[in-house]
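Q: What would this chain look like folded?
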Amino acid sequence: MEDPARRWKELVRQIEDANHRYYVLDAPTISDAQYDALMRDLQALETEHPELRTQDSPTQRVGGAILDKFPQVRHPIPMLSLESTLTEQDMRDWVESMERELGRPEAFEFVCEPKIDGASLELVFRGGALHVAATRGDGTTGEGVTENVRTIRAIPPRLRGQPPPALTVRGEVYMTLRDFREFNRRAEAAGEQTYANPRNFAAGSLRQLDTGLTARRPLRFLAHHAVERIAPRDSEAMNTLRGWGLPVVPAAVCAGLDRVFEVYRDLLSKRDSLAYEIDGVVVKVNDLRLREALGSRTKSPRWAVAWKFPPREENSVVREIAPQVGRTGEITPVAKVDPVQVGGVTVSRVSLHNYSLLREKDVRIGDTVIVTRAGDVIPEIVTVIREKRPAGAREVQPPDKCPVCGAKSELSSTGKGLRCTAGFECPAQVEGWIQHFVGRAAMDIEHLGDQWISILRTEGLLKSPADLFELRRHRSKLVEIERMGDKSARNLLEAIEAAKRPPLARFLNALGIRHVGEATARDLADHFGSLEALMGATEEEINSVPNVGDVVARSIFEHFQNRTHRGEVERLRQLGVDPQAPRRGEGPLSGKTIVFTGGLESMTRDDAKKAVEALGAKVASSVGKGVNLVISGDKSGSKLDKARKLGISVVSEADFLKFLEEARARGSRR
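A: My prediction, written as structure tokens:
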């Protein structure tokens, strides 16, 4: 039998190598299912041999410890802030100031990095192992958040290769915009707290006293500075850090200011397409000897500046607050403000999300407000400048009727939103639903933008999504529509025909079920496997799907109980729309066969079975050679004995719940 210690080392090596390839090299070589299989094997091995489990084992990244408070950590060298610049002339002035400090002209080589809008973090490694992690704090002393940082998968618990005995690295903890929006969507659906922007969320996540909460948040890290001189130039030092297994902020080496200007303009143009929020470009002298010669001021280094982008926050005046009806019937207040440039975009309309938020922020017609686009491309009102409120500023009350169709409005189940009760009798809801239905994440029908949808509805050709698949019968009328023509009509009809066999997950997303987005649609498709199974499921069965809570389950169940919704689905099927079931065996637990024995306290046996099957595993009723894992509950019987005789991994209910959570987190991470 293989030596357990040797097996443990090999599993840890493979897992950390997978993390390195995913986070540092951005070139994963194993699938999610293979990664999860490695993690499960390690979890099972540590359960059988707890003496092997170390503090920096990959299994310890799930958190769970409750901290009393954060210790104070003094930085070995103060974490200074950067001086800000705004224009090309400011940059020239900065270079001249450095030349004056050196007493000579200098052909500087620079490093340009995106200024990630995250939370600053310092990592101290001793003997290659993560020793201490601390926030910036006041620049001299920060809070020790080591246990929380150990849960961030992008940060290796032990460096690769031959790092120096002592190493201090600084960087940014951040969240991708996609992860941030998905987290907020799930939180809102569950009636939990949502967050204003990724930076505040990342900073708050680092300071959770419950490390399990930090572990469940999709935090990432990028290094941008090594305190010790580990190479002659900064660019070389960052490559060295990358070789030791740390993810490093992307950077460009620039020979002179002209190239710096090009990089700045390029990043500014890409700002809204990047995976994370940035608010400028950090420009640093590349030569570390020159940095030492230049030194620092009291609060900032002389050798680096933050060249800020145009602000995403500006002042404006609210001229009107009007209700707007969305595809699910939500009536939201939209503020019409004096046009203002925010981050290079003209903003004249700002969503206030719901009337509860309108009251909370106390926004009134006539108010001067701060408008932002931080964390998203959708403008928001940050706050009201109360000192500028005019005497006649007018409050706005929620409408008791839908502003489009006149139907009665009612509070949503959370008590925060307001909804039109007319359903598909409301033209605004129908048009919004069709727009969502044809979207890229839904049915993905090309050549059908919002304007064409509005025209087709005006022509009486489009009253519901199913009507799209009847348009072929009206080809002659399509061709006669102004600016449509024969070619456009042909392209549209071909795109509609090509969309008839969507993946089940995209079809479920297209249906526009309240609280169901892309991620939940995937969970439902993976769990039920067919549209018929989901439509026939009880509310309790839907509630058993991973990541689906009470509010979401009730919304899904009620959607398919609604006669109009069911009729629309049936009509779509009759017109040839055939959602394709997901291929089995591709989840994070695929390839594994699991047996349960004994009673479980945290869930029923049926719920446990559904949970692992939804993640790709098979559940067997008896222990045999094809079984990979046995979950042992209370009063386990002969199955447990047989598993031990066959050398099959056995884990307790507590450990089963841990790696089940790990598998779900791994699936969402990737």
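The longest strand covers residues 313-325.
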